[in-house]
Automatic annotation (TrEMBL):
InterPro entries referenced in this protein's UniProt entry, alphabetically: ELC1, SKP1-like, SKP1/BTB/POZ_sf, Skp1_comp_POZ
CDD domains per the UniProt record, alphabetical: BTB_POZ_EloC
Compartments (UniProt record): Nucleus
UniProtKB keywords: Nucleus
Family of the protein in this entry: Belongs to the SKP1 family.
GO cellular component annotations of the record: nucleus
Predominant subcellular localization, coarse grouping: nucleus
Domain SKP1 component POZ as annotated: residue spans: 12-75
SMART domains to which the protein is assigned, alphabetical: Skp1 (SM00512)
Protein name: Elongin-C
Gene3D superfamilies per record: Potassium Channel Kv1.1, Chain A
Organism annotation: Protomyces lactucae-debilis
Source superkingdom: Eukaryota
Gene Ontology BP, a term: ubiquitin-dependent protein catabolic process
Amino acid sequence: MADSDDQQQSEYVTLVSSDSFHFIIHRKAALVSGTLASMLSPTSQFAESRTNSITLESIEGHMLEKVIDYLYFHERYKDAKEVPEFVVQPEYALNLLVAADFLDGMPLSWSMNKHTYCI
């Protein structure tokens, strides 16, 4: 029988964008973000730690999808010796910078028009 600790530590979490798109992702990928990790911590007072669902009111669905792509990219290559570039379309750059700032500590690095941008 599953207890509440098992429920809190679900393998998956749901991220909900400001325009109500729901993305179910692996908890491990979500924990790349300091903000998401804090909200999902079983020792936190956030309701999200119990519901395993986080609504991101400041991030639209198409941007959240790109953020999630990066979370998985980071998880996949975090220990790799050679990491391919994470390419972002220039028109997404500003919104992704804002999202990365909000998500605290996402070591976001990408390439646009032969320039590399890092946070």
